[in-house]
């Protein structure tokens, strides 16, 4: 039986960013250095396939530090942790490695610097997300106020409108965040902005690529996990860019083939925590059903790399 033709547009960049790559390496190197088990506080990155793979090698994933024994190393996830977490690890005399992405740490440092200068901080982020909890937890309760939407800006109660700064989560929608920043600046003209954009290069580049590819395709699939903020933003960006059908899939098994009936083209992207192996699995699933032509749509080239902490580069 002949297969129907289908063009697959692969958005580039997609998939792993430098912070995810580093965080996974940290767990792998910790397992090599100290042997199993090594504890990891929270999913090292928001991807079940990655987490399951590391678990098979001896990593034990927990949500809180008090679930870890004191005589085994613990790694903090790429999303960052409140100050209280390393403080507690030190109090318990635990060996710990911080896999917080350096671009998240940059926001932490920025928040601290603003507080030292007497500024109260407004964080633009998603309530309950580990990165937001970690960034807000760099400072005492009440020093960082959270806004999630433009509407929240009208309600936020600040100490002094003249002494304010804002920071953001690294994985937000670039366009939605612009609107929230505009609302903040309209209400608080003196508010201090980040030195350099807090939304990271990987988030920005993946959203740009999705924007470029969305109008070309009948449907767009983002490979990523439901708890992955940056992956979910890519689905929203595609829908806003005019893609009639945009869906998040963790693996090929999640593809709703019936919904794709009659399509001639599909665009594929992947969140910063999604391995390329899963993208290839999705492409292969299309090849099984269609006569596929692949086209890469590249809007940026990335050369970012982050070093792993020195403790892991030294022999045990
Ligand atoms: C750390 C910070 C930002 O949900 P989110 O997009 O934040 O996280 P992941 O694990 O899906 O992506 C990588 C990441 C880690 N992004
Ligand atoms: Fe870091 Fe951005 Fe990736 S903050 S972990 S480079 S998505």
TrEMBL record:
<feature type="binding site">
    <location>
        <position position="228"/>
    </location>
    <ligand>
        <name>isopentenyl diphosphate</name>
    </ligand>
</feature>
<feature type="binding site">
    <location>
        <position position="230"/>
    </location>
    <ligand>
        <name>isopentenyl diphosphate</name>
    </ligand>
</feature>
<protein>
    <recommendedName>
        <fullName>4-hydroxy-3-methylbut-2-enyl diphosphate reductase</fullName>
        <ecNumber>1.17.7.4</ecNumber>
    </recommendedName>
</protein>
<feature type="binding site">
    <location>
        <position position="17"/>
    </location>
    <ligand>
        <name>[4Fe-4S] cluster</name>
    </ligand>
</feature>
<dbReference type="GO" id="GO:0016114">
    <property type="term" value="P:terpenoid biosynthetic process"/>
</dbReference>
<dbReference type="GO" id="GO:0051745">
    <property type="term" value="F:4-hydroxy-3-methylbut-2-enyl diphosphate reductase activity"/>
</dbReference>
<feature type="binding site">
    <location>
        <position position="79"/>
    </location>
    <ligand>
        <name>isopentenyl diphosphate</name>
    </ligand>
</feature>
<feature type="binding site">
    <location>
        <position position="46"/>
    </location>
    <ligand>
        <name>isopentenyl diphosphate</name>
    </ligand>
</feature>
<keyword id="KW-0414">Isoprene biosynthesis</keyword>
<feature type="binding site">
    <location>
        <position position="129"/>
    </location>
    <ligand>
        <name>dimethylallyl diphosphate</name>
    </ligand>
</feature>
<keyword id="KW-0560">Oxidoreductase</keyword>
<feature type="binding site">
    <location>
        <position position="230"/>
    </location>
    <ligand>
        <name>(2E)-4-hydroxy-3-methylbut-2-enyl diphosphate</name>
    </ligand>
</feature>
<feature type="binding site">
    <location>
        <position position="228"/>
    </location>
    <ligand>
        <name>(2E)-4-hydroxy-3-methylbut-2-enyl diphosphate</name>
    </ligand>
</feature>
<feature type="binding site">
    <location>
        <position position="273"/>
    </location>
    <ligand>
        <name>dimethylallyl diphosphate</name>
    </ligand>
</feature>
<keyword id="KW-0408">Iron</keyword>
<keyword id="KW-0004">4Fe-4S</keyword>
<feature type="binding site">
    <location>
        <position position="200"/>
    </location>
    <ligand>
        <name>[4Fe-4S] cluster</name>
    </ligand>
</feature>
<dbReference type="GO" id="GO:0019288">
    <property type="term" value="P:isopentenyl diphosphate biosynthetic process, methylerythritol 4-phosphate pathway"/>
</dbReference>
<keyword id="KW-0411">Iron-sulfur</keyword>
<comment type="function">
    <text>Catalyzes the conversion of 1-hydroxy-2-methyl-2-(E)-butenyl 4-diphosphate (HMBPP) into a mixture of isopentenyl diphosphate (IPP) and dimethylallyl diphosphate (DMAPP). Acts in the terminal step of the DOXP/MEP pathway for isoprenoid precursor biosynthesis.</text>
</comment>
<feature type="binding site">
    <location>
        <position position="129"/>
    </location>
    <ligand>
        <name>(2E)-4-hydroxy-3-methylbut-2-enyl diphosphate</name>
    </ligand>
</feature>
<feature type="binding site">
    <location>
        <position position="229"/>
    </location>
    <ligand>
        <name>isopentenyl diphosphate</name>
    </ligand>
</feature>
<comment type="pathway">
    <text>Isoprenoid biosynthesis; dimethylallyl diphosphate biosynthesis; dimethylallyl diphosphate from (2E)-4-hydroxy-3-methylbutenyl diphosphate: step 1/1.</text>
</comment>
<feature type="binding site">
    <location>
        <position position="79"/>
    </location>
    <ligand>
        <name>dimethylallyl diphosphate</name>
    </ligand>
</feature>
<dbReference type="GO" id="GO:0046872">
    <property type="term" value="F:metal ion binding"/>
</dbReference>
<feature type="binding site">
    <location>
        <position position="273"/>
    </location>
    <ligand>
        <name>isopentenyl diphosphate</name>
    </ligand>
</feature>
<feature type="binding site">
    <location>
        <position position="170"/>
    </location>
    <ligand>
        <name>(2E)-4-hydroxy-3-methylbut-2-enyl diphosphate</name>
    </ligand>
</feature>
<feature type="binding site">
    <location>
        <position position="46"/>
    </location>
    <ligand>
        <name>dimethylallyl diphosphate</name>
    </ligand>
</feature>
<feature type="binding site">
    <location>
        <position position="228"/>
    </location>
    <ligand>
        <name>dimethylallyl diphosphate</name>
    </ligand>
</feature>
<feature type="binding site">
    <location>
        <position position="229"/>
    </location>
    <ligand>
        <name>(2E)-4-hydroxy-3-methylbut-2-enyl diphosphate</name>
    </ligand>
</feature>
<feature type="binding site">
    <location>
        <position position="46"/>
    </location>
    <ligand>
        <name>(2E)-4-hydroxy-3-methylbut-2-enyl diphosphate</name>
    </ligand>
</feature>
<comment type="pathway">
    <text>Isoprenoid biosynthesis; isopentenyl diphosphate biosynthesis via DXP pathway; isopentenyl diphosphate from 1-deoxy-D-xylulose 5-phosphate: step 6/6.</text>
</comment>
<feature type="binding site">
    <location>
        <position position="273"/>
    </location>
    <ligand>
        <name>(2E)-4-hydroxy-3-methylbut-2-enyl diphosphate</name>
    </ligand>
</feature>
<comment type="similarity">
    <text>Belongs to the IspH family.</text>
</comment>
<feature type="binding site">
    <location>
        <position position="101"/>
    </location>
    <ligand>
        <name>[4Fe-4S] cluster</name>
    </ligand>
</feature>
<feature type="binding site">
    <location>
        <position position="229"/>
    </location>
    <ligand>
        <name>dimethylallyl diphosphate</name>
    </ligand>
</feature>
<feature type="binding site">
    <location>
        <position position="129"/>
    </location>
    <ligand>
        <name>isopentenyl diphosphate</name>
    </ligand>
</feature>
<dbReference type="GO" id="GO:0051539">
    <property type="term" value="F:4 iron, 4 sulfur cluster binding"/>
</dbReference>
<dbReference type="GO" id="GO:0050992">
    <property type="term" value="P:dimethylallyl diphosphate biosynthetic process"/>
</dbReference>
<dbReference type="InterPro" id="IPR003451">
    <property type="entry name" value="LytB/IspH"/>
</dbReference>
<feature type="binding site">
    <location>
        <position position="230"/>
    </location>
    <ligand>
        <name>dimethylallyl diphosphate</name>
    </ligand>
</feature>
<dbReference type="Pfam" id="PF02401">
    <property type="entry name" value="LYTB"/>
</dbReference>
